[in-house]
TrEMBL record:
Source organism phylogeny: Bacteria, Pseudomonadati, Acidobacteriota, Terriglobia, Terriglobales
Name the record gives this protein: Glutaryl-CoA dehydrogenase
GO molecular function: acyl-CoA dehydrogenase activity; flavin adenine dinucleotide binding
Pfam families: Acyl-CoA_dh_1, Acyl-CoA_dh_M, Acyl-CoA_dh_N
Organism, as annotated: Edaphobacter modestus
Annotated ranges, domain Acyl-CoA dehydrogenase/oxidase C-terminal: 257-397
Ranges of residues in domain Acyl-CoA oxidase/dehydrogenase middle: 145-238
Acyl-CoA dehydrogenase/oxidase N-terminal domain ranges (all copies): 31-140
InterPro entries with a match to the protein in the record: ACX4-like, Acyl-CoA_Oxase/DH_mid-dom, Acyl-CoA_Oxase/DH_mid-dom_sf, AcylCo_DH-like_C, AcylCo_DH/oxidase_C, AcylCoA_DH/ox_N, AcylCoA_DH/ox_N_sf, AcylCoA_DH/oxidase_NM_dom_sf
Amino acid sequence: MSDTHAQEATKPKVLPKPNSDFYQTFQMLSEAEQEKVNKVREFMQNSVSPIINDFWAKDEFPFDLVPGFRDLQIAGLGFEGYECAGGSNLLGCYVAMEIAKVDCSFATFYGVHSGLAMGSIYLCGSEEQKKKWLPPMARLEKIGSFGLTEPLIGSGASGGLLTSARREGDTWILNGQKKWIGNSTFGDLTIIWARDVADGQVKGFIVENNTPGFKVEKIQHKMALRVVQNGLITLEDCKVSEENRLQNDTSFRDTARVLRMTRGFVAWEAVGCQMGAYENALLYAQQREQFGKPIASFQLVQDLLVKMVGNITACQCMVMRLSQLQDQGKLADEHASLAKAFCTVKMRETVGYARELLGANGILLDYNVGRFFADAEAIYSYEGTREMNTLIVGRAVSGFSAFI
């Protein structure tokens, strides 16, 4: 063997960096959009990644990160005017995926505020309400929540909300409870959905969290999305002015418009969760040695890696097309529901493969995979269970409704 060949043989092997964008979906964004995503990616890697496990373990939210997050100017992506970030739905959802790739809790904080709360006002509010509330929310000077789910009502929200709204002159009296409401323990306002006792229709209300009769209790002992501060809201004769009723919301059909938009967002978040688990698992496999060599060189480990990247790539292609449909004004309920159902099922598979690859280390926060594995369980359930979304798609493809 020549000296040159000997030197080549002794050089350390240069391994590919973990990259979950196997089909280069990033290239589908414009240069300006790529620049925006890169800023978000840098913030998440440099500011969130080093500290998020500690906050997850403590069941606390990293409030010190909010100013830096505000500087990214991404609140209200996809919404035009009112100081919102604007841009395409594709960009907004790609940003959500990048956030979730580092931490799903932070992505949920963003999605609840920017998607559900701001989206409710953007889609269902009057011009005056948009001008009043959206600019400070876009600047993250006011943090929003979304109160739909109740202790006894989850999937049956369209026809069974127990929270009531009774009008007395120009005032509405709200009574009831809301559960699993992210951001509500520290936020400034919550979109409360309640049933009007007069006509039986669901209506939306902008309720400031310091309103008398509005009480929030933090939900304890969660095993997933522990950085998200979920609250149990109790409304006891909570008085809200007619001025704060969402003026362009008249029934649950309007609520569903918000959910259609954000359900696609959750599908993207599920893809980001998979990407984070995969990239951390791949890095581990490249570094972890057994039997004298890295486990990434073993066939069974490579089989797990390929299953993961296959799931991720399939889901990425699906949600990219989903956002294109939304930007074209062609998004239907069944489109969003299929993406949410499919991507969360594949997410469960992918994070399971990642945890399996790490063996016992897969349940330690130190390697990050355990956090994605746990957080996936919450993403799998919220914004419509797999079963409910399946029935929405099933109705669309068969022509028959299987809802009870």
